[in-house]
Design a protein that fits this description.
Elements: E1 2-6, E2 10-15, E3 22-26, H1 28-38, E4 42-46, H2 53-64, E5 67-70, E6 79-84, E7 90-95, E8 112-116, H3 126-140, E9 148-152, H4 157-160, H5 163-174, E10 179-183, H6 184-190, H7 196-206, E11 210-214, E12 220-223, E13 228-231, H8 244-256, H9 268-286, H10 296-300
Parallel strand pairs: 1-4, 1-8, 2-6, 4-5, 8-9, 9-10, 10-11
Antiparallel strand pairs: 2-3, 6-7, 11-12, 12-13
């Protein structure tokens, strides 16, 4: 079963109070691809990197985690400056380019498609996602497509624009996927007038079968139209939160990729189990420095 992830890969420049800056591979979709590769899944990653030192470093890092990278390196690699606060939370500043080479994609639809973050909103590359969604729908119909499609918007207002500009795009994409994962911060930015339950109802109403809302240290809420479960976060000593939400997404894709029955039929107990596994996996990541996502061996231990 092949998984295709589409999105940005970049270099995180991490600034911590009282310490020297450090450089690390990053980008939410890149983290998802990397995490899936580390768990042993067959994953391809369409991205846009430079032919500079940073680009070479990113490619090597992804390939070491068993990710098949689809890219035509040229120019400068995108960067993100992450400023960590004392509590481990992060704020970001980006210098980005998003123009992937779609000719590297196969004609056949993947079994699983995941996309998200800046790449879903930033032109010209966002059009690649639209065309692939159109292709999947055209091959098998709007309600019967054979691919599992997931989306994590990972909202960055300083890059993608105002709420008024972004909301129509977000809602269009959210209506074309099976799994929608987002943070409570994302949801509050998109729907500030609604409480959490109303936000989830609204998101389900857009068309996704499963909505997963992460809530930082408070855990997550997993919901379909007929069942809802709140799960607590795994108690760990937090080093930093970079990559936590991406790890949660990895766990969902890994668990759902071979599911034969409809997501809408998930029971409350099944939703809780999915959420608990995802928060446990994310707990491993936040206990480490940087976006060091778990390997399969970490789960066994």
């Amino acid at each position: 079963m092949n998984i295709l992830v589409i999105g940005e890969a970049l270099i995180d420049i991490v600034s911590t109070p009282g310490a020297r800056d450090r450089y690390a591979p990053g980008g939410a979709p890149a983290n998802v691809a990397l995490g899936l590769g580390r768990l042993g899944d067959d994953v391809e990653f369409l991205t846009d990197v430079g032919d500079d030192f940073h680009g070479g470093f990113l490619l090597a890092h992804l390939r070491e985690s068993h990710v098949s990278v689809l890219a035509s390196p040229h120019g400068a690699t995108s960067t993100a400056l992450a400023r960590l606060a004392q509590d481990g939370s992060a704020e970001y500043e980006f210098q980005l380019r998003w123009d992937p080479d779609s000719s590297l994609l196969e004609d056949s639809a993947p079994s699983v498609l995941h996309f998200g973050s800046i790449a879903a909103f930033l032109t010209p590359g966002s059009a690649v996602i639209d065309r692939l969604l159109d292709t999947i729908t055209a091959q098998s119909g709007p309600q019967t497509h054979g691919s599992l499609i997931s989306f994590d918007p990972n909202i960055r207002p300083s890059i993608i624009g105002s709420r008024e500009e972004v909301l129509p795009r977000f809602e269009d994409l959210a209506g074309r996927v099976d799994v929608l994962k987002l943070s409570d911060v994302d949801a509050a930015w998109l729907y500030p007038e609604l409480d959490v339950d109303a936000q989830i109802d609204c998101l389900l109403g857009l068309g996704a079968d499963l909505v997963a809302m992460t809530r930082g240290g408070e855990g997550a809420i997993m919901s379909t139209a007929s069942a809802r479960a709140a799960v607590s976060s795994t108690p760990v000593e937090v080093v930093d939160t970079i990559g936590a939400g991406d790890t949660f997404m990895v766990s969902l894709i890994h668990d759902l990729r071979a599911r034969a029955t409809a997501l809408s039929d998930l029971t409350t107990a099944e939703l809780r189990a999915l959420g608990e596994r995802a928060t446990a996996l994310a707990g491993i990541t936040v206990s480490r420095e940087g976006a060091d996502l778990p390997w399969a061996a970490d789960l066994r231990s």
